[in-house]
Structure formats: structure tokens, C-alpha cells
Amino acid sequence: PSASDPQLSTSDKAVATPKANGSQNSPAKVESWSPSSWTTKPIKQNAIYEDHNKVAKSLAKLERLPPIVTPTEIINLKASLRDVALGKAFLLQGGDCAELFDYCEENVIESKIKLLLQMSLVLIWGASKPIVRIARMAGQYAKPRSSPTEMVNGKEISSFRGDILNGNALDERLLDPSRLVDAYFHSATTLNYIRASISSGLADLHRPLDWGLGHVQDPELQMKYSKTVESITDSLKFMRTVGADTASKALETVELYTSHEGLLLPYEQSLTRLLRDPALPGATAPTEHKSWYDTSAHFVWVGDRTRQIDGAHIEFFRGIENPLGVKIGPTTASSDLLALLRALNPSREVGKITLITRYGASKVRRLLPEHIRTVEQSEYARTVVWQCDPMHGNTRSTSTGIKTRQFSDIFSELQEVMAIHKEEGSYLGGVHLELTGDAVTECTGGSEGLGEDDLSLNYTTFCDPRLNEKQALELAFLIAASITL
Ligand code: PEP
Ligand code: MN
């Protein structure tokens, strides 16, 4: 038998013991689940490599490498998401659709962290609640595709499936197993620079932030946004003056977690480890109990195309301790919704599951209320984080075939979602955005007034169109203003 058989991989040897209180992992789940049990299930978006020996070598290498994130961090995020589920905090998640290895670069990383930080300040101001920040970064390298091939210059070639699988260049479309290990190192290097920048004061709010609102042409909007910034700046100044900042570290640093779609299961499996649970707050002795942690990122989600209830991805996801996202949309049956929650969170941990809703502005009013009622009138009431992804239901093509999204559609879906949650008595816990800190021209609209003719100016995404830094910040201002209503 070859070691490329994921069933035989080394991370599969240890067997978890049921928790003493039995509340987190039911014995049935522990008996039947293993990091490779997904291999017995039907799989969508599967990666079929030519050279199995090379795959085995890459996976063996990954299994030896240290965790990228730790159980303590994962559990801390889960505790924060519990607050979000309970309506005590708000979740901001954002980053590229397809993160490229080339984005592992000082300026690209910094501009994205700064943008997420600024957006979170605006949201704190608007929501008067703590903001939990998760970057779609340091591992967002695998993409599900609607078609395995595409036509280029009259020739049918394999689609680009993300840097962890193949390259976008036309001569790099063959799946390359060495990219699995490359992904690990780019992920670790990106996270290293995120951690280093934050601990060196990139997020130090004692420093003035450059808000760059010069592009806002509408004088009324310019005034509104400037007022918000002024108010944020004044609050920070006040805290410094009264010494609130020396009493706590809150102004010097922020928490920023990482996330990606858990699409490529051999990669996720290799980084899934049986590790000691962190001690509970107030505990006098370290815990002996171990759980399975996917150490590739703090938060992983299952995409709209791979969330089949009997499929490989749900099988893998149900066994890990990490907080999980599930994309849901127009094709999600309400009965599937409960089946998913029961499979992924049998013990009904609050905040364990984030439902990332993505319907499109024109469909959300018809579809979201029933999904909310299904969950909130079940035994899962008040356990999930409801997060709005206003991007993926609003993708369209221009008449010349460019994939884009309109800023007004994105905000319109968000507004509808806020209104619907209010009507249903549920809590919109967060937003999930595709954005970049750079001045790209991929989505139309916003205060710069980007039109379809402008898309060609700086259209650099290899997958879905992202909000540029100005559009993303503007969306944060708009959300903040709507939340305070
Ligand atoms: C994505 O988040 O980039 C994505 C592919 O989304 P979805 O699974 O919702 O289509
Ligand atoms: Mn996308």
C-alpha cells in the first residue's frame, strides 16, 4: 500500500478518547470519525494527481511540520464567536477570493491588515460592540470551480484551482503536488509577518491612521465619513488622555485570526493533530484531554459547492474542534440546514458554527427568512453566528464578459439582511467580504464612481472581483451607520 493513501497517513494513528463529561464529543462520533474517514465518502471538487508518490512525499512532509496555529488560539476564537452568537460582539471577516503565493509580500500583507483594522474601528464605532476580526488570509489557496476546464484561445485547458493545486499561467495548469508544501510555507510566512507586524505596533492606535478619504466626491458623504473618523480619533485621544490605554493593552494591539475554505482535504488532514485542549479559565491543573485540531488556520469553512450532508467535506469537518463556517444560499434546503447543524455540532456549542449566507440582493428577501426560522425555531436557536456574505450571490458578467459585482447590490443585500434579522428577532452577527488593500478596479460603484469602462484599469483578481480599499472602507461606514439606526 502506498503512503499516498490518505487512509494510511501517520496523523491517523492516534485515537481520540471521549471527553470526561461526554458533552463535547459523543462517543459515537469519536468511534467513527478519524482525520481520514472522509476518504470513504463521495467527494466534490476532488484533486486527482498524476504522481501519487510525489503527493505522498508532500503529505508526509506536511505531517512532520509544526502546527501553523495552536489549540489555545483556536479556542480563544471560539469563545469570541460565542459572544458573537449571543449578540455581544460583531464579526468582520475579509480578504481575497483566491490568495496567491505572490501576495506573500510585505506591502500586500500590511495594506490588508491596516484595512481590516480601520474597518473594524468604524464598526466598533457603529455597533458599540467589540469586533472579532478574521482574515481570509494565510491559507486561502484552494478554489472550487464551476467547471474543471475553460476555453483559452480556442483550446480547452484545466481551470485555475488556486495556488495550492496549480498555477494560473497556462503552462502550469497541471496539478503539482509540491504546491501542497509551498502552501504551508506561504501560509506560515504570511502569518509570521501578520504576527510580527501586529506585535511591533502596526495596529497601535496611539499612531495616527491615514484614512485617505480624498476620493469621496459627494460633499455630503465626505462630511459624514470625516465626522465618523473625527469621532473615532477623538475617542482614541480621550482614552490616551485619561490613561485608559496604559491601564490596558487594548490600544496597542489587536487580535487577528486567519481562515480559509477547507477545500483540499489531504492538506487539511495533514495539519489536523490530536492536541491537548487548553486549560479552562480558572483551572488549577492543565487538562489531559486531547482533541483534533485543524492547525492550518483558526477558522475553516465549507463552501457552497462541497457541503453535501453525506459528502467528504462534512465528514472531515464534523471531527475537528475549530469553529466552522458553512456557506448557505439559494440551493440550501431548510431540511439540509438542520442536518448540517446536527452533523457538525451535535453538542450545540454556542458559536461553533457560523452560517455564511449568500443569496444575492434580488433573492435574499425570499429565502433568508425561512432559513432563519428553521434554525431559530429548532434546538439550535441562538447557537449559530449569522454572517452575511453579500459578495457571492451578486457576481455577474459585463457585456464584454468581465466578472464583476456592483457596490450597490452588495450593500443592498446587506441592508436587506439587517432588516430581515431585525424582523425575525435574530441577530446579524457579522459580514464576510472579498476585499483587498490595493487600488484594484474589480467591483463597480462606490464613492469613486467606478464604471464598467474602468474595470480594465487595474483588474488583477484571478478569481472573484474584490472590493478595493476605498470601497471596503466605505462599506464599513455604511454598515456602521445602518447598525446604529
Ligand atoms: C468563496 O468564498 O470564494 C466561494 C467560493 O464562495 P461560495 O462557496 O459561497 O460560492
Ligand atoms: Mn469568491
From TrEMBL:
It comes from the Eukaryota. The keyword DNA damage does not apply. Keywords: Amino-acid biosynthesis, Aromatic amino acid biosynthesis, Cadmium, Cobalt, Manganese, Transferase. GO terms for molecular function: 3-deoxy-7-phosphoheptulonate synthase activity. Mn(2+) binds at C97, H392, E434, D464. It catalyses: D-erythrose 4-phosphate + phosphoenolpyruvate + H2O = 7-phospho-2-dehydro-3-deoxy-D-arabino-heptonate + phosphate. Residues 1-12, 20-38 have a biased composition (Polar residues). One of its GO terms (biological process) is amino acid biosynthetic process. Phosphoenolpyruvate binds at R136, K327, R358. The keyword Iron-sulfur does not apply. Residues 1-38 are annotated as: Disordered. Binds 1 divalent cation per subunit. The enzyme is active with manganese, cobalt or cadmium ions. Its EC number is 2.5.1.54. Its cofactor is Mn(2+); Co(2+); Cd(2+). Pathway: Metabolic intermediate biosynthesis; chorismate biosynthesis; chorismate from D-erythrose 4-phosphate and phosphoenolpyruvate: step 1/7. Belongs to the class-II DAHP synthase family. This is Phospho-2-dehydro-3-deoxyheptonate aldolase. The chain holds residues 3 to 487 of 674 of the full protein.
